[in-house]
Amino acid sequence: MLNLADTSPLAAMPEVESLQLIAADLRLLIVQVETSMRRIAAATDQEHGSDQEGSADVFVLDDVTPRYATASAALGACRAGLGHALECLSETGSTV
After folding, report:
1. What are the tens digits of pLDDT across the range 28-55?
2. Where are the domains of the chain?
3. Which residues of 43-78 are buried (b: 16+ CB within 10 A; e: fewer)?
4. pTM above the 0.85 mark?
């Protein structure tokens, strides 16, 4: 007889249920990444929106835009990877 007490929770459940939990985790991560990307876009807009027409004499020495752009690009790649992982799970034949 199989002793389920010594196995991890995911290993003790049916494969379909396990895949559904993994897919739900991936979807949650995708939502979190997209939220972060929207926050970065809002912060970038706020930084550029604070520039006034008459501030041509003002020089910004510490521009955070490159850091925002780099972070946004990394999150975009992460989003693509998570989407690919979700697609791979759905290719197993079960509905996730």
Report:
1. 999 999 999 999 999 888 877 655 554 5
2. 65-90
3. ebeeeeeeeeeeeeeeeeeeeeeeebeebbeebeeb
4. no
